[in-house]
């Protein structure tokens, strides 16, 4: 009894050979395998979500704000790609939806065609929120959809912040830089247009007046030159007479002999004076008509020219032959004719002739100055007329430009929003939350339990299959010793386990469906698939136990169970695990059990269900054949089989 309690006895049984020693090592490492393996596989799954393939669709066609193009969708797509928080794939809508439906992408995010237009909508009277469209498929992986929803919420917050901080400010700049200022500018432009029209009209009148003044000043210059020449011609004989009269006054002793000649000269001088008087009258009349013509225009130039012309006309009228001069000439002529005492008369005439000579000289000088001044006046008026014509061209352009300015500012003033309080509230709401998320689910799971049911059901079926071979022998020794067919030996052990495995699947299905109320899109097919998976897993466990023996087979089955847990992609997307488990994903039997049950429970059947059916069917058939080969091998007895390394 005391020997039975010896601690070394059981250890010695396991230390007899290499296989027993290996079994001891495996037993020692089993807790480490459970702890370290799971920690290694799921050390930081959320830190590797950037490996999740996700579809990004940018359908935004852009918009125009204040004459400038704006494409917020392209900017956001670029920022998401640069951020690399997820493995974004920029694709078109059809490829994205097909990828989400068939598992290429875990979910998709779309920027719709009117995204930028919705961002710019607060500048209109119909503001609306921009939409981000997300589509998930829980049949791909339930947790990936949860990760996707969290990621999209972060994208939504980032986009909202981005739009509130920059894009909305750009959109609303048209409002902040307009308003009452534009309306006041439009009113000022209207006044400017009216003033420009008046200025243009006045410039036209000035051009017309200067045209007339230019023509009149030309005539005036020509007439004053003619007048000056005529005065010179007319006064030449008079100057000769005045010179002669001066000589008469100093040579009175010769007067008597020359009386007759003087009488004749006086007659000629009188006639010349009459001619000069007529010329002066004609010139004065011409100046009067020019003065009347210029007086019609009240501009400064015309008024200045009119004043100078009046002075000239007055000088002409002032130098006309006065009645006093005429009387003295008549008296001199009578004395000369009578031959009376002419000495004193000639002396008087000589003094008056000198005075007349001075007046005639002044008249000639004044006429020449008048002619020269009128020529300068004509040239100045011509230059002024040319300048005013250029001014008229400029005022016409000013009038046209001011009209266009008034029109454009009036149009701008009409475009300035005149929002009602309700519209202002809507705009404030749109600016405060410029982006709104619209989500849709394909094959949506109503809760976490339904989403995780495919993984836990598959795990339960495999665990149940493993437990069966702890109670049943994978191969019956009596059947082997009887040397019957290896297939019959295999089925003789397999069928009793299946008769328990199928009820395991049925009971599990009923509890899940009717007690836990897990809804299934295809309930009958789900039950059939669970029965197929149970049969396949039982066959796998039988084959492993038959080839390696009860002890090592159970160890390998437990190890396989742990590996399948982390490589099947049932909990987290397989892309978030380490690379060795990603490589084992396609060889893991539980992978196909999880994929098949996901599509039968959540819907969205595609090629993954048929792959699962084919794989499980092939796995079942291959395991049966391997077990049959093990049965044939066991029909040959040897020392190792007679004394097994490990017994249970």
From TrEMBL:
User: Which keywords annotate this record?
Assistant: Membrane, Transmembrane, Transmembrane helix
Q: Where is the DUF3533 domain?
A: 24-185
Q: Which residues form the ABC-2 type transporter transmembrane domain?
A: 395-631
Organism for this UniProt entry: Mycolicibacterium psychrotolerans
Gene3D superfamilies, A to Z = abc type-2 transporter like domain
Subcellular locations according to the entry? Membrane
> Which is one Pfam family of this protein?
ABC2_membrane_3
A GO molecular function term, named singly, is: ABC-type transporter activity
Membrane topology, from the record: Multi-pass membrane protein
Could you identify this protein by its name? ABC transporter
Q: Which parts of the chain span the membrane according to its record?
A: 22-43, 452-472, 493-516, 528-548, 555-574, 609-631
Q: Which InterPro entries match?
A: ABC2_TM, DUF3533, Phage_infect_YhgE_C, Phage_infect_YhgE_N, T7SS_ABC-Transporter, xxxLxxG_rpt
Output the Gene Ontology cellular-component terms.
Answer: membrane
């Amino acid at each position: 009894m005391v020997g039975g309690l010896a601690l070394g006895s059981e250890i010695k049984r396991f230390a007899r050979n290499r296989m027993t020693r290996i079994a001891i090592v495996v037993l020692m490492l089993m807790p480490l395998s459970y702890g370290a393996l799971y920690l290694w596989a799921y050390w930081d799954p959320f830190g590797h979500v950037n490996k999740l393939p996700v579809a990004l669709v940018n359908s935004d066609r852009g918009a125009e704000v204040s004459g400038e193009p704006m494409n917020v969708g392209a900017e956001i797509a670029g920022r998401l790609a640069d951020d690399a928080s997820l493995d974004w794939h920029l694709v078109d809508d059809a490829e994205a939806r097909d990828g989400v439906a068939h598992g290429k992408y875990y979910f998709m995010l779309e920027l719709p065609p009117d995204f930028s237009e919705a961002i710019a909508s607060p500048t209109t009277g119909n503001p609306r929120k921009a939409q981000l469209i997300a589509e998930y498929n829980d049949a791909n992986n339930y947790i990936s959809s949860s990760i996707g929803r969290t990621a999209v919420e972060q994208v939504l917050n980032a986009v909202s912040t981005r739009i509130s901080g920059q894009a909305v400010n750009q959109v609303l700049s048209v409002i902040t830089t307009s308003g009452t200022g534009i309306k006041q500018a439009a009113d000022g432009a209207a006044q400017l247009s009216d003033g420009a029209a008046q200025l243009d009209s006045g410039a036209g009148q000035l051009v017309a007046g200067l045209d007339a003044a230019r023509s009149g000043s030309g005539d005036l210059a020509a007439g004053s030159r003619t007048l000056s020449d005529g005065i010179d011609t007319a006064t030449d004989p008079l100057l000769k007479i005045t010179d002669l009269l001066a000589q008469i006054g100093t040579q009175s002793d010769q007067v008597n002999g020359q009386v007759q000649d003087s009488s004749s000269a006086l007659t000629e001088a009188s006639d010349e004076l009459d001619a000069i008087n007529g010329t002066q009258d004609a010139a004065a009349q011409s100046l009067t008509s020019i003065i009347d013509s210029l007086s019609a225009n009240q501009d400064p130039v015309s008024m200045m020219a009119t004043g100078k012309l009046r002075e000239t006309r007055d000088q002409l009228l002032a130098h006309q032959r006065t009645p006093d001069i005429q009387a003295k000439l008549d008296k001199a002529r009578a004395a000369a004719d009578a031959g009376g005492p002419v000495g004193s008369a000639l002396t008087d005439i000589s003094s008056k002739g000198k005075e007349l000579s001075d007046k005639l000289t002044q008249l000639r000088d004044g006429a020449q100055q008048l002619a020269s001044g009128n020529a300068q006046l004509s040239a100045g008026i011509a230059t002024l007329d040319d300048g005013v014509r250029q001014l008229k061209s400029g005022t016409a352009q000013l009038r046209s430009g001011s009209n266009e300015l008034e029109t454009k500012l009036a149009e701008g003033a009409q475009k300035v929003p005149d929002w009602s309080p309700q519209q202002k509230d809507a705009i404030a709401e749109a600016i405060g939350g410029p982006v709104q998320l619209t989500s849709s689910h394909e094959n949506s799971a109503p809760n976490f339990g339904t989403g995780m049911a495919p993984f836990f059901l598959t795990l339960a079926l495999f665990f149940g299959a493993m437990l069966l071979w702890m109670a049943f022998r994978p191969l019956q020794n009596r059947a082997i010793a009887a040397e019957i067919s290896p297939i019959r030996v295999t089925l003789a052990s397999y069928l009793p386990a299946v008769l328990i495995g199928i009820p395991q699947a049925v009971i599990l299905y009923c509890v899940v469906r009717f007690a836990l109320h897990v809804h299934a899109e295809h309930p009958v097919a789900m039950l059939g698939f669970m029965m197929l998976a149970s049969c396949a897993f039982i066959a796998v466990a039988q084959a492993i136990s038959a080839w390696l023996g009860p002890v090592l087979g159970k160890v390998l089955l437990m190890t396989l169970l742990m590996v399948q847990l982390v490589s099947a992609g049932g909990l987290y997307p397989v892309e978030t695990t380490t690379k060795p488990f990603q490589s084992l994903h396609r060889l893991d039997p539980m992978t196909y059990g999880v994929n098949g049950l996901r599509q039968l429970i959540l819907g969205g059947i595609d090629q993954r269900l048929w792959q699962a059916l084919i794989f499980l069917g092939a796995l079942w058939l291959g395991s049966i054949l391997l077990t049959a080969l093990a049965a044939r091998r066991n029909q040959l007895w040897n020392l190792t089989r007679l004394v097994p390394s490990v017994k249970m």
